[in-house]
């Protein structure tokens, strides 16, 4: 079959590879000038440092098959994300752990003491948290919430944490020991030479052709037997029902003649600091050695048409609109909507790959509900 895949990010590359291996002819197009979507990495022209161009990407998963899959295409180096946070005049360890609690409150608590101490601070009157703020107050109490979550979240999402779902906070652990690894997952790492060579390897198959700087046209779909769409879901329907909301990011680059902040990611909890975090890219490749340094200050704002979409907002208004688009997508035979943009969900890389592998298998087995009859 002739398969058209729109988007050369994780979904397009992984599905394309699987279908190519099964003998299908896969044409992958991308409107950008490079493969890899937002996972794209490249060396900084001035310093040679590997840049996570669209923000930090740390691979973490419990899915052994997905871990083996990515390792089959590139060498991963061990990497654990140890984030720091500047807030209220201090620097603390994230996610909130025993060191954070002891330093923030000027204590020397042991794990059980800290657990009891935080239980006193936590708002036990909230039994069923209805939003992000209630979830945070119930978990850690007002002081930690205001230092680490409130300002950061207002900046990140551009609204009050009372308007956001509690589920966003559930991404972050709270620990009563000194474990400061940001993620729980068994397998964690970053490709030795960045993510782009991994995409090169996935896409390196005789049945795959990749066209960059190429915008989708309906004529392309007409030439194909099936389409996998990993572009924005509303974009496929020419935004006829309206725009689904996204947050976009602006990165302000600056260089430094040494080690700027001593870690890869420094979050800023205070509302009066306009950026959410600073990433210092050489610390994502600690196996390399660089004298100089390149950093990004990261600013979040509402995406306007033409901006790169990053985080789906999924508030009440978006959810209503999303349901309408999903109904349209389900009724569109011959097109399967995949990935973060195609399904308007905030997906980690490992989940995106898992879903892409499953989507490809379902298609090959004739179980894709969007397959044309
Ligand atoms: N968050 C926060 N303070 C922090 C880090 C995260 O309040 O220092 C909140 C914020 O609302 C964010 C959410 O927790 O959107 C999830 O954080 P995560 O680090 O998973 O966000 P990502 O790195 O994916 O942007």
UniProtKB/TrEMBL annotation:
Q: Which GO terms describe its molecular function?
A: flavin adenine dinucleotide binding; UDP-galactopyranose mutase activity
Required co-factors: FAD
At the top level of its lineage, which domain of life is listed? Bacteria
- Membrane-crossing ranges are none
Looking at the UniProt record for this protein, which Gene Ontology cellular component terms does it annotate, in alphabetical order?
Answer: cytosol
Q: Which InterPro entries match?
A: UDP-GALP_mutase, UDP-GalPyranose_mutase_C
Q: Where is the UDP-galactopyranose mutase C-terminal domain?
A: 147-346
Isomerase in keyword set: yes
- EC number of the protein: 5.4.99.9
Pfam families hit by this protein: GLF (PF03275), NAD_binding_8 (PF13450)
> Keyword annotations for this protein?
FAD, Flavoprotein, Isomerase
Assigned protein family? Belongs to the UDP-galactopyranose/dTDP-fucopyranose mutase family.
Q: Which PANTHER family match?
A: UDP-GALACTOPYRANOSE MUTASE
Q: Which NCBIfam families match?
A: UDP-GALP_mutase
State what protein this is by name.
Answer: UDP-galactopyranose mutase
Gene name of the record:
glf
